[in-house]
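haha ok so turns out i had the wrong file open the whole time. this is the CORRECT one, sorry everyone. sequence first:
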Amino acid sequence: MNSILDELKHAFQRPNNGLMQIIVINLIIFLVLLLIWVPLTISTESNIYSVIVDQLTLPASLGKLIYQPWTLVTYFFTHEDFLHILFNMLFLYWFGKIIQEFLGDEKVVNLYILGGLVGGVFYILIYNLIPYFQNQISSSEMLGASAGVYAVVVGAATFMPNYSIPLILLGPVRIKYIALFFVIMSYVGTAGSNAGGNLAHLAGAGLGFLFIKQLQRGNDLGRPVTQFLTFAKSFFVRQPKVKVSYRRSKSSNGHSKVSKVTKTTYETKQEEIDAILDKISDSGYDSLTREEKKKLFDASKKE
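then structure:
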């Protein structure tokens, strides 16, 4: 528990910590809404609170979505119910750690964001194309990180299906069975009162499966997300200065000459780690040599 709290505390102070940053953003939004809700409810101004939440919630209505397109992103960072955010964040942490350990932090972030986006788009399409849901469009809205979380859960189960997690009363359970259980529950729920949310869950789960399968074939569906986030961060994060060093080497005539080295040691090591992660994606963790496993382990400790 202390380890999780420490990770949350330093979420934005450590490099390659996108998983914890996502969790912290969800928690901050939840707490801010809670702090706003109390005084507004007591002062009988709860309608103001409803307006605020409405600006973060994804509507099924295309007419309404046009005026608040940002909700396609904000909805999967927003929760109102304590148990909702608790279980979402716990599952995101448990399964996200698996992806983070073997594929890198970047893949967790990409899975979560793509899962949320695909879940939201699928939710809107279903409500506007299937006659059964069309009479509910005007009153239907969605919030919560579940679609992104399902993408991470199913992604982890697809990548390492036999990885086991100890569960109370059940003991060690392979994550492929945990993921399958929640997918089946969401499928059953598509005919219930939370049909839209469960449809988004299934879309997120499908994205998680497709993401890992494509990654194993050498296709990174998350590259556009990485490029966009790198571009966005460039406005807020100070870029490290490139260290310039010189080394002497002998030319063909025996005289020494000076060559310029512009790559930092960090960049070189990062390239090695990226190559190892790509190898894991293609052939699995067991295909690594002892030296590669040691490099990956040492890098994880430094992070």
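The chain has two domains: 2-231, 243-303.
again sry for the mixup
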